[in-house]
Amino acid sequence: MFADRPNPDRRSAPLGGLSDVMDRFGAVANFQRDAEIYAQGEPVIHLFRVVKGVVRTARFTAEGRRHVGEFYYPGDLFGLESGPDHDFTAEALTDCEIRVVKRNAVRAAIGDGELDLAILGALHIELQRARAHMLLMGLRGAKEKVGGFLLALASHSPAASVELPMGRQDMADYLGLTIETVSRMLTQLQSEDIVEFPSVRRFKVNRPELLESIAA
Amino acid sequence: MFADRPNPDRRSAPLGGLSDVMDRFGAVANFQRDAEIYAQGEPVIHLFRVVKGVVRTARFTAEGRRHVGEFYYPGDLFGLESGPDHDFTAEALTDCEIRVVKRNAVRAAIGDGELDLAILGALHIELQRARAHMLLMGLRGAKEKVGGFLLALASHSPAASVELPMGRQDMADYLGLTIETVSRMLTQLQSEDIVEFPSVRRFKVNRPELLESIAA
DNA sequence: CGGTTAATTGAACGCATTCAACACGAGTGG
DNA sequence: CCACTCGTGTTGAATGCGTTCAATTAACCG
Questions:
Q1: pTM of this prediction?
Q2: Which of A144, B49, B139, B145 has its CA 20 to 30 A from that of A136?
């Protein structure tokens, strides 16, 4: 679901010169919780990287149903879109510090080839996430989906206790479930002692092997 | 779901020199229906392009559940993976003619930059498909999913009558439904005169606007 | 401490699944 | 040409699970 995030800052290796350019030419913008970073339908002009906080992309269907695309963590590049316009809206899930740079500026600084290469790497990561997300949504039951979600979160967090920056509604919209079902599954997983919630926004995996067997 | 496929052969524009190289250095392989083109877990070495027929990628979960990734049509590039190994198995859905080339050969012929650029374009398309697929699976009801699937198929086919190269089970595994549910939804959509099935593997959209409103 | 939002829990419903039977078409051989 | 079979698709009935709507509790902040 997320890029490899054992190392909190991966400016160096995979992104090559891009991150240097972002650091040199990019501006840093701060967004408050729930602030919009860019909107669905806007033209794709910039590249974004999370410095601090967590970003969520989302989309509204015609009937008002919300679909959460992905969550982006510090070090992650986002705002990559295939078309000329954004398909998703990006919002600050928590208070955020975002580094922004115009694609043209990058192009001018490091050339097309370098930019392509950098975007290539980011696209690979993005595709991986999308496939992992699809796999999650393809699981049979709600318990499997929620379990898989927690597992993915935990597997990218070195700490014993994992923070949940997103609320239940975000999880629900990410997994294609209702908020009530998510809540029920969380309590169920907890009652089976597979995970443990010291607080609403923090959990610990007690039985990783069981969690993995659930998420299939 | 599919790349822009109004023109059946898009060797020219978006892939640049890659397709030329594939034509020059690539071999053409023929696969019978259900033959394996590459397997989950195998190292990523080649690039593939569909010449004739339809290809399906799929994956088996630990519990034996099958998940269909995508369907690839003539002109489509496939076999792009982020990691060193294939996450999915590729199989010939129908009898196929596939053009195969070693990535190294392409690299030697047109250089890293060109290869990157070509893969970049293909990755964009792949990401778009993955997102469209996710959107489909995120829809509420089975009718919405099946309707959306048919709509996507129809929207990429210029002909009035659209062929369904895949069976009901493939649709089910693509949408995360059971084969019975898919069948029921198809008959329901037909009974509402939204679509029409002259034969099991062929359909026609009678009310595009209704179909679109269903797929949201 | 109230006031507000988020999260949990409960009960009834509806829809997709499950298990089973049946229909249909293609291919084969009598 | 019919009978047979096999694979695939459709239909039926009952179950189960996620949803829906509603009420309660918990957490956060003044």
A1: 0.91
A2: B49
